[in-house]
Amino acid sequence: DGGITQSPKYLFRKEGQNVTLSCEQNLNHDAMYWYRQDPGQGLRLIYYSQIVNDFQKGDIAEGYSVSREKKESFPLTVTSAQKNPTAFYLCASSIAGDGYTFGSGTRLTVV
Amino acid sequence: GEDVEQSLFLSVREGDSSVINCTYTDSSSTYLYWYKQEPGAGLQLLTYIFSNMDMKQDQRLTVLLNKKDKHLSLRIADTQTGDSAIYFCAAQSGTYKYIFGTGTRLKVLA
User: Fold this and answer.
1) 3-state DSSP call for residue B81?
2) Residue A26 carries which DSSP code?
3) What are the tens digits of pLDDT across the range A24-76?
4) Cα–Cα distance between B7 and A26 in angstroms, integer?
5) How does pLDDT run across B41-95, given as a tens digit for each residue?
6) What is the pairing mode between strands A101-102 and B4-6?
7) How many beta-carbon pairs under 8 angstroms link A with B?
8) Interface with chain A: mutation pick from B3, B31, B96, B97, highest number of A CBs within 10 Å
């Protein structure tokens, strides 16, 4: 079955550490996205990519980095520059004019 | 920038209808979507409506669009406890981007 997979489901980060969240899709979707969800604030766009080897900053890109070396994969790195990284992170993919397909999310906690 | 607004909470009794409202600002939005999020999970696409439509019905779900007022609503008929979740409205903004509302938490009382 086609779908979008995020891993891990739970992730713990120490202060000053970089961590990478994985997102893989086998839907042959061109575009992929990373959102951050905080309670009562809805979804905020971190980065998105419309094609391989190209990506754009969203509304809250500071402290995050991404790569898009393959169509299927769009990993997100939360760097030590992100001062408040505890949140639920959602990856999504889409084709033009279609709705998003979301992954099941990664909950990141700073310890 | 473009914005999508929703009320934060809605509480209904089991068997009643639920109506979740949304307003958006981007008049060029071609597609508008409703997503459902259950606790600890990703968002699931429920339904969508094309901007040249006024209404779309899909089983218990009815979407109404007032393009002049930029107002979208989702009606759930015969609401069940399994419908308790957060519902997000999203408006297309450009070819690939969508703007999401803050989500409406629906609580269904037995």
Assistant:
1) helix
2) -
3) 999 999 999 999 999 877 899 999 999 999 999 999 999 999 999 999 999 99
4) 35
5) 999 999 999 989 999 999 999 999 999 999 999 999 999 999 999 999 999 887 7
6) unpaired
7) 53
8) B96
